[in-house]
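Reminder to self: keep the SMILES exactly as supplied, no canonicalising. Ligand is adenosine-5'-triphosphate.
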Amino acid sequence: MEALIRMESVVKVYFIGGQEFQALRGVSLTVEPGEYVAIMGPSGSGKSTMMNILGCLDKPTSGRYWLDGVEVSTLDDDQLAVLRNQKIGFVFQSFNLLPRTSALENVELALLYAGVRQQERRRRAIEALEQVGLGDRLQHRPNELSGGQQQRVAIARALVNHPRLVLADEPTGALDSQSSEEILALFQTMNDAGHTVVMVTHEPDVAQHAKRIIRFQDGHIVQDHLNEQRRAAPAAALGGARHALD
Ligand SMILES: Nc1ncnc2c1ncn2[C@@H]1O[C@H](COP(=O)(O)OP(=O)(O)OP(=O)(O)O)[C@@H](O)[C@H]1O
Ligand SMILES: [Mg+2]
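Structure tokens returned for the bound complex:
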């Protein structure tokens, strides 16, 4: 089976005021289809830099990166945008929804960029919002939704193109524990459905949901292990979200 993610000796250098700073110092990583990976590590250790490169939002200074067999550094910006749209769903800590736009339109937009026709966009966006339990909030704007609901809109938007890879940078960072559990239950369901998930988190409890835990420090991977104590998500916490996905 071909790896979904293959990185070899990736270095990322930032230049600030004539000073050079190495945010990633030679990172090599392979992730197979169907994995569920948590990335942990101190602030400033390079996690978001890594996610930006994994998500083709930024390019390595040196080293190589293959996404689903395609070497990303050989692509121009337009080709990268197409690859990103086809293969990757993003979930951010701050939701990143368009503010004056309904939940339905926020999700539809992802399909517009993918070139899906209007009727089909509407049908698939409604279906995705129903899957995350927001079938009764289609016309709500972000400021009319709770944080947990906004994040569920963002997850619907991430999933609506059926991406192979879901990238989440601190997806529960802005949420209370109940909403966090619901969001984590959705990630679990995504992963069960075959999506590969890579999630950055500061919280050990959140990382325990993943099958594999990678730790960053000073731009290096310092630990990479299977999560033996993977905690089955508590049935009670799953209840709400599972209903939503029925
Ligand atoms: N655009 C940029 N220009 C210059 N330096 C940057 C830039 N982005 C990040 N850095 C630096 O690179 C290092 C790694 O940043 P990164 O955002 O990857 O850390 P992180 O592990 O995600 O931290 P946190 O847990 O606080 O989100 C930091 O020292 C940061 O200051
Ligand atoms: Mg970060």
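Points to follow up:
The chain has one domain: 5-245.
The CA atoms of residues 90 and 106 lie 13 Å apart.
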